[in-house]
Amino acid sequence: MSFYYTITDKNALDVRSMELQSLIYPALRGTICGDELQKKALMQGVIYSYVYSGKDGLVITRITVDRASCGL
Questions:
Q1: How is residue 10 annotated by DSSP?
Q2: Number of H helices and number of E strands within the chain?
């Protein structure tokens, strides 16, 4: 399952991808791993993928949450 987000006030090169990941990943992981329906989906092979782009359309980073991310 893929989700696409655009940071509307920055170009991709103006954002540090590792910094963005370190800010977003813990919250994504906590939300997905803490939800019973999403955990069930993970157990059935769903992989959650989040793609963040700048206002220029270039990809800044991709963040993936899978079974292993949740220790399943």
A1: S
A2: 2, 3
Rounded to whole angstroms, the Cα distance separating 65 from 69 reads: 6
Q: What is the pLDDT of residues 13-56, one digit of tens each?
A: 999 999 999 999 999 999 999 999 999 999 999 999 999 999 99
CB distance 52 to 7 below 8 Å: yes
Q: What does the buried/exposed string (b/e) look like for 59-70 if buried means 16 or more CB atoms within 10 Å of the residue's CB? A: ebbebebebebb
Query: pTM score, two decimals?
Result: 0.89
Residues 64 and 68: their CA atoms lie apart, in Å, by 10
